[in-house]
Amino acid sequence: MSTLAVISAGLGRPSSTRLLADRLAAATTEALGRDTAVETIELRDHAHAMVDATLTGFPSGPFRAAVETVTNAAGLIAVTPVFNASYSGLFKTFFDVLDRESLEGRPVLLGATGGTERHSLAIDYAMRPLFAYLRAGVVPTAVYAASEDWGSGETALPDRIARAGAELAALMEARPAPAKEDPYENPVPFDQLLAGR
């Protein structure tokens, strides 16, 4: 069974960011049409651990498990609220902790939430460049949800969610599941370590 990792950088509970993340995950699993494990990571729960990992250079405890969930997943949904016309600091800190190669080629669906439609371009001028740097495979359709998208029956949000979920599912189907690498599988023999080779 493949795993779909979902990152929500919302600060509140409940949050529109988490609501959007859940809807994107549901659309993706529906489009996949097979059993898929969905692992949702609320970044607010790991805020202190992310700062510690930034300072020490490596994640530990439950945050390490969250990082491994993301780096071993077949696909990723990443959703952030927009603050000051860009992604949140919490969102950026998580991706600063990851190894640069850890998302290479990974299918990713981007989403963002904000108070007004004015911030919708934050996905294209802030989020896409970040994931291009990480060499992830970002789907063409990203989903931005403003406050008015949640209360109106006239919104195109459900159609955008369905289209983006189908695009992520197609990329996940086309890409083989990542193999888990065991760093201890081929240890250096002790005599070589002592010889300095």
From TrEMBL:
Its EC number is 1.5.1.-. InterPro entries: CE1759_FMN_reduct, Flavoprotein-like_sf, FMN_Rdtase-like_dom, NAD(P)H-dep_FMN_reductase. Gene3D superfamilies: 3.40.50.360. SUPFAM superfamilies: Flavoproteins. Residues 176-197 are annotated as: Disordered. PANTHER family: FMN REDUCTASE (NADPH). Residues 4-150 form the NADPH-dependent FMN reductase-like domain. This is FMN reductase. The lineage of its organism: Bacteria, Bacillati, Actinomycetota, Actinomycetes, Streptosporangiales. Keywords: Flavoprotein, FMN, Oxidoreductase. It comes from the Bacteria. The keyword Heme does not apply. One of its GO terms (molecular function) is oxidoreductase activity. It is an enzyme of class 1 (oxidoreductase).
